Amino acid sequence: MFIDTRRVDQGSVVNCSVCIVGGGIAGITLAMSLDKQNIDVVLLESGGFSSDEGSRDLYRGEAVGEYPYSFADGCRSRFLGGSSNCWGGWCRPLDPWDFQKRDWVAHSGWPFGLDELLPYYDRTHALLQLGPNNFDPEFWERSINRPDVRRTPLVSGKVRDTISQFSPPVRFGKTYRQTLQRSQHIRVYLHANATAVDTDQSAQSVTRVQVATLSGIRMEVRAAHYVLATGGIENARLMLASNTVQPNGLGNDNDLVGRFFMDHPRLLAGNIRFSRQWSRNKLSDVKYHYMNASVAAHGVHVAHQFALTPEVLEQERLLNARVWFWSIFPGEGSQGAQALLRIKQALLKKHQDDWSLPADIRSMVLHPIDTLGYGYTRLFRPRWLIQGVKFQIIVEPEPNPDSRVTLSPTQTDSLGMKRVRVEWRLTPRVQRTFDRTLAILADDMRRSGVAEVELDAPIEGQKWPASLEGTWHHIGTTRMHDSPRQGVVDRHCKVHGISNLYVAGSSVFPTAGANFPTITLSALALRLSDFLVHQIRGQA
Ligand SMILES: Cc1cc2nc3c(=O)[nH]c(=O)nc-3n(C[C@H](O)[C@H](O)[C@H](O)COP(=O)(O)OP(=O)(O)OC[C@H]3O[C@@H](n4cnc5c(N)ncnc54)[C@H](O)[C@@H]3O)c2cc1C
Fold first, then answer.
1. Is 83 in the pocket of ligand 1 (CB under 6 A)?
2. % of the chain with per-residue pLDDT over 70
3. What whole-number distance in Å separates Cα of residue 501 and Cα of residue 505?
4. N or C: which end of the chain has fewer CB within 10 A?
């Protein structure tokens, strides 16, 4: 059932068994899983069914630090479904070694291994509308069975190839709207902003969540269990802002909330000249993924990427990374091409702030050559029009306590909450991983006769290139560790020291790996659901 909080009585008190704050992938996954167990849930969602400027503004804040970092408009969506309204749908579970303690990566290691998540990863496939739970490149090459979709030979023994699957991408607020509407156990409060999570005087148990609408209604929710699922930046913000009893914020006795903020740094690099035999191969080129029919089987599109073997990572003391190819099309980056891409995203039902079809049509009409060149190449991909191929690479960010989300000392939003301040910092090992991953892959491609590669100058010890970007993956700010001195939540995603407060989402990841986070945060939400059911039934 949906309730418009702007229409509830001023000062209402709502009671339930589990209060989930945030209606994104984490919150909706958890709510729907608890629903199946007949558990009474209140889901608080800041936005409505679509984007609105007032809610969007609540996400704005300050980016500080040595390189620019965007985290508001277009980088997060604040309405039902959260950032699933704009995500790309890449899915791949973390690698087994992402969970391990690596002696060369400070603060690495999860409290459990990949095995613990396997049954939950399995369940995410239906939820995210993925294909078979199989990420073996050989299986996909065989299933796709096309001469122009082939795995390239890898000869050095240092590189492996991997597969990701694409969710269509599922927009959770749309795809699961009917399920939420019909549920007998879930009450979704829209336009309901959690502004504070209050505890008893000992700060050992949460007593209520305070809620406000932009129209001035205030209410509170009282529950047996509370789950924060507001995304990797907002989870920390809400905990830091809830400081009536604990001046440093909830669960922040050890000054960890908001620290270890991570996102996958991303770059385009190098120039690749394929040998004739491999020049038409589509498997590893991102431009042939998504809507193109070539790289798909079993009803799902897949992407193929390269990574270093765990042995090389250990020998060279590197972080994990993923690399794929990026064809440069005529008109790439031009206004006409950008307009065309936005229209494609609209067809994929992607939420884009301030998107205007007439404005994009105008851009295309004003830049006909760029638009037609780009569009034609994108559709038919004639080799002779492709102006070059580059690597695109994302690297695992190293956990770094100085990379952090804090509250702005000066700025508040329209609900009176302090805005966020985000300082994204990367370590020298991240730079070395960029350099070494590309150098080892380039060497392998040369030796196997797949391509000649001209690499860019190494970046280790240099200023980051201006083209450095994040990947909209907000990770680590409420990290998981068995010890409260090293983590905000325990292995069950429960906040240390507070008996009934949990966190869902990628903010609990202690390390980020080099795969996209959403399938893992969905698996963790399903696991948290099992744990809560057990707690609730145990108490009954
Ligand atoms: C452009 C883009 C592309 C992406 N592509 C991929 C990809 O290909 N693969 C991948 O794995 N990941 C991708 N991601 C990341 C992915 O979208 C996120 O990991 C995922 O959506 C996070 O889900 P969540 O539920 O934890 O948080 P969110 O999606 O951030 O949801 C949080 C929800 O909480 C609500 N909320 C916030 N604050 C409050 C409050 N105080 N009170 C009440 N409600 C509140 C918000 O409105 C929102 O609905 C992408 C992200 C972006 C922006």
1. yes
2. 99
3. 14
4. C
79 C-alpha to ligand 1 centroid (Å): 10
189 ligand 1 Cβ < 6 A: no
Three-class SS of residue 66? coil
Please tell me if the CB atom of residue 93 comes closer than 6 angstroms to any atom of ligand 1: no
Q: Is the pLDDT of residue 291 over 70?
A: no
What's the rounded mean pLDDT across residues 14-43? Answer: 98
Q: Would the CB of 503 count as within 6 Å of ligand 1?
A: no
Q: Is 162 helix (H, G, I), strand (E, B) or coil?
A: strand
Return the domain boundaries, the chain: 1-98+117-125+169-264+474-540, 329-385
> Ligand 1 test: best mutation among 79, 85, 230, most atoms within 8 Å of CB?
230
Closest ligand 1 atom to 517 CA: 11
Q: What is the CA radius of gyration of the chain?
A: 23
* Three-state helix/strand/coil letters over 15-58: EEEEEEECCCHHHHHHHHHHHHCCCCEEEECCCCCCCCHHHHHC
pTM of the model: 0.96
User: Is 521 a pocket residue for ligand 1 (Cβ < 6 Å)?
Assistant: yes
Query: For residue 74, is pLDDT > 90?
Result: no
- What pLDDT shows up at residue 350? 76
| Alpha helix segments (H runs only) across 259-356 | 310-316, 335-347
The CATH number fitting domain 1-98+117-125+169-264+474-540, selected from 3.50.50.60, 3.30.360.10, 1.10.579.10, 1.10.3330.10: 3.50.50.60
CA of 229 to the centre of ligand 1 (A): 9
